[in-house]
Each structure stands twice: as C-alpha cells, then as structure tokens.
Specification:
This protein is of the alpha/beta class. It has helices at residues 7-20, 27-35, 82-97, 117-124, 137-148, 166-178, 183-186, 201-211, 233-242, 262-265, 310-313, 336-349, 354-376, 411-420, 444-465; strands at 46-47, 69-70, 79-80, 131-133, 157-161, 187-190, 215-221, 246-250, 269-272, 287-290, 388-390, 403-407, 423-424, 426-428, 432-435. The strands form four sheets. A seven-stranded mixed β-sheet has the order 4-10-9-8-7-5-6, sandwiched between helices. The protein has a four-stranded antiparallel β-sheet with strand order 11-12-15-14, covered by helices on one side. A two-stranded antiparallel ribbon has the order 1-3. Helix 10 links the parallel strand 8 and strand 9 (269-272). The longest helix has 23 residues, at 354-376.
Length: 470
C-alpha cells in the first residue's frame, strides 16, 4: 500500500493523523483537511441536491435531508447559484425590450459570449483571441477537422484511442469517409499493452514516430473519459508536429479539471464541452481553440454570418470579411440562455486559479485512493473478500480528479446500491464506476462519507450475489 500511493500524499495524510492522534482513516482527518482548505468557501456558490431529491434514493437506508455525495461532476457539474438570476435577467429584458436586447443592456445578445472568452482562455491556457465559445463539442470537432484534416494518398491517417469517446470515434470515422478514404485503413487506433488499462506515453510517441509519415492528424482526448488518464499533451504535440502532423485534443474531461497550456504547448486545435467540470448545464455552450500560428494559414471549410468581422457584419454585402483564427469558424449567434450559466460558473473559477484547484484536486483524489486501497485492495489470504481495482493511473501527473473503479462483485448491483444511498456517480460499460471528487465544490468529508457508504454497499452486494441455498 505504501508503495502504491504517491509518497508525498501518503506523508501528508499520515502526518495529519499523527498530529490529531488518530488513525489515518478516521473522519477527523477529512474534517481537518476541510478546515484548512482555502477553497472551501467555493462550495457555497453551488446548489447541492438533497438525498431525498435524487429519484433512486431509498429513504429507509439514508437520511433524505442530507446533501447527496455528488461525485458525478465529470458527467454534469453542479448548478452555480447565479444561473437562475442571470437567466431571469435576460428573459425579463426580452419581455421588456424585444429585439433591442440584441445590442442593448449590460449583456447585448449579439456578442454576449465574447465577454466570457478571457475567462475561458484562462482555464485552457490560451490567448482570448485563440478561443471561441460556440455550438456543441461534436459540431466544433467537425468544423475543426474539416479545416485541419487534409488527407493525401500518402498522409491520410488519423490517430486516436481505441476506446475514444463514441462521439469522437464517429466524428473521425465520418470525416475519413467524407474525404473518400476507408476508416479500416485510415483510422489508427492506440491500445494499451496486454494486461494494462491505460496507454503509456512512450507507446503513443513511438507510434507517432513509426507511423508519422502516414498520419495527417493526431486526435486524442486530454483526459480519457473511461480510464480517467490525463495524457501528456505537451509530449504528444511535440512528437506529432515533429512528424509533420497536426495535433488536436478533445478536452471535454480536461477543461476545469487539469492545468492546460494549449498556447504554450503549441497545440494546433482543441475543442471541449463546458457542462462537466465547467458547470454550464446540460448541452451547454462548447468551446474551440485554434493556435494563433494558424490564424492566417488554416481557414474554416464552412462559413457562416458570425464568422464575418463584427465591424462590417451588418453591411450585408455578402462578401465575406473573415475573422482571423478561431473566430472565423463561428457560424451563428449564440443562445444567450446558454451564455448565462457559463458566465455564472466562469465567475466562480475567476475567484481562484487552476493551479490552486489542481493542488486541492491532487490531495482530494489521493485521499480517496488512499482509503480505497486501505480497505479494498485485493487480499490473496482472503479470497472471498470483495476488492476494488483502480484502473486510473496512480501518478497524479497522469490523471485528473476522476478515479475509475472496477469491482470484484457485479457492477450493476453496486451502482444501484450506491444510488439508493444518495451517491451520485456513474457507471460506464463494460465494468467501471466513475467517481470524481471535484475540487471546486467537493470536500474531504464527502470522500470519507463515500467510503463509509461503500462499506455498506459491498456488504449488501455480497448478500445479493450469494446463491440462495435450499
């Protein structure tokens, strides 16, 4: 156990326990971390569902008045408290001023999203002019791929993970077909080594070096949705570009979760949704990045009115005056009711920094890993004892806040029992429950509560999985 937890995290946990004169697994340790968490006030900026409000909860098993254990921010972030206020303001403006709202008021609808691009750029490590807020993630991925994927007879492959998120896989597959190539020969899929759960950076780089002459685009995720692995985006970008490839990333699970430096790393393009760690609500406004080095060289393949420069847009000449860089990829005006929740969340992020959030995240997820391994590591001397296998890398530099857990017991039963007890997490086929303690609003006490609930869940699942004797 000591060797499988990063030593600095183990040291911190054990020193706190020593200071408190208690076990490292005691709830007192969690409470101590919370008391000394300088970001703990940010939790008050969000609305937490009560256990009784979650449909799967069984109130005979749990106190319905408690806040739920919300570990599913990797799927949908919590609602910032200011969301309703901002949406109500725009609805009221619409009611009172009608079309004048396009260009008047504190948040003119015609360029409302532009006011947020500085804040969004801070989260992804970019310049404001390299970031656009528009559309949904997959729409943006298609728009960017249409520009950056220019296959030739010799260089036509796209490199991606074997188990990429389905939407990314479908987008890549369709882009290849659109250009007249065959996905069976033009999709180059990366698989972990036999017996391993995640990809090694050296294997990704060696594949690029070996196949780079035939690769047009390297297209990976920033954080792998299933395993929770954080890819070394800087090393991958450097390797791909050295072989003449464009390098892009789907940062859906990385934005608001990991420290990103898209500009400094020289990433060619990226896209992301904002409804996970950036808390903009289901189907929220997505983001796109194009490095400034491509501002005048890589042009969008599809054009729309909103890609036209604002200064001449309303002259209606039908002669495109294209905005440089990523702004030229805009097609239509953005729904202001989607801008509102994103604004509410980005204002909370602006109260802190990704550096400080990442510091807390490393300890928060490390604490969860410590407790899971303490109680639920596989024990050969007790073959009937249930165990948990964490497929997410143990190295904090190779993961965000999510841990992907594989269980020795039937996973559906475990997931159902967790939901009954007010735990919001999610299950992903074939065999993983994903839990994500989000540093913006989750606490160390949440982690300890989860471990306590997990004990009762595994006990209940053992009973359910045992055959009935006659």
């Amino acid at each position: 156990l000591r060797l499988s937890i990063p030593l600095n995290l183990l040291y911190v946990i054990e020193k706190v326990a020593e200071h408190l004169d208690c076990s490292p697994t005691s709830r007192e340790v969690a409470e101590y971390f919370d008391q000394h968490d300088k970001l703990r006030h940010l939790r008050q900026e969000f609305l937490f569902p009560k256990v009784a409000e979650l449909p799967p909860s069984d109130l005979s098993l749990v106190n319905g008045s408690e806040e739920c254990i919300y570990f599913v921010g990797n799927s949908l972030g919590l609602q910032p408290k200011n969301v309703k206020k901002y949406i109500d303001e725009e609805i009221e403006k619409w009611a009172k001023t009608g079309a004048h709202g396009h260009t008047m008021g504190s948040q003119p609808w015609a360029w409302a999203e532009n006011n947020l691009e500085d804040l969004m750029a801070k989260l992804v490590g970019a310049k404001a002019e390299e970031v656009a807020l528009m559309n949904g993630l997959t729409v943006n991925l298609h728009l960017l791929m249409l520009a950056f994927y220019q296959p030739t007879a010799k260089r036509h492959k796209i490199l991606l993970e074997d188990k990429a998120f389905p939407s990314d896989h479908y987008a890549v597959e369709s882009q290849i077909r659109l250009r007249g190539f065959d996905p069976s020969t033009s999709m180059l899929l990366l698989k972990p080594r036999e017996g391993e759960d995640t990809l090694r950076t050296e294997d990704i780089v060696s594949t690029i070096e070996r196949e780079g002459h035939s690769i047009a685009v390297v297209m990976l995720s920033g954080v792998q949705y299933y395993t929770g692995q954080l890819f070394n985006m800087e090393a991958i970008t450097k390797a791909g570009q050295a072989q003449g490839c464009y390098v892009g990333f789907d940062c859906a699970h990385a934005v608001g979760n990991a420290e990103l430096r898209l500009h400094d790393w020289g990433v060619d393009f990226a896209c992301w949704c904002t409804y996970k760690y950036v808390n903009s609500g289901a189907g929220g406004l997505a983001g796109a990045f194009v490095h400034e080095k491509h501002a005048d060289t890589v042009k969008p393949a599809l054009l729309g009115w909103w890609g036209h420069k604002l200064s001449t847009r309303f002259q209606m000449t039908n002669e495109m005056d294209l905005q440089p860089g990523v702004n030229g990829y805009r097609l239509s005006n953005q729904p202001v009711l989607l801008v509102c929740p994103l604004q509410a969340s980005l204002e909370i992020f602006n109260q802190t920094s990704m550096k400080d959030l990442r510091k807390k995240s490393i300890l928060l997820t490390g604490y969860l890993e410590y407790l899971i391994k303490h109680y639920y590591s596989r024990d050969e001397s007790e073959p009937h004892k249930p165990y948990v296998h964490i497929i997410t890398p143990s190295n904090p530099a190779e993961r965000g806040c999510q841990l992907s857990l594989s269980f020795s017991l039937p996973i559906r039963a475990i997931f159902k029992e967790l939901e009954k007890r007010g735990v919001a997490c999610d299950m992903r086929e074939p065999n993983v429950i994903r839990v994500a303690p989000v540093p913006l609003y989750n606490s160390f006490t949440d982690v300890h509560r989860f471990i306590t609930v997990l004990e009762t869940v595994l006990a209940a699942s053992i009973v359910q999985s045992c055959p009935v004797s006659h």
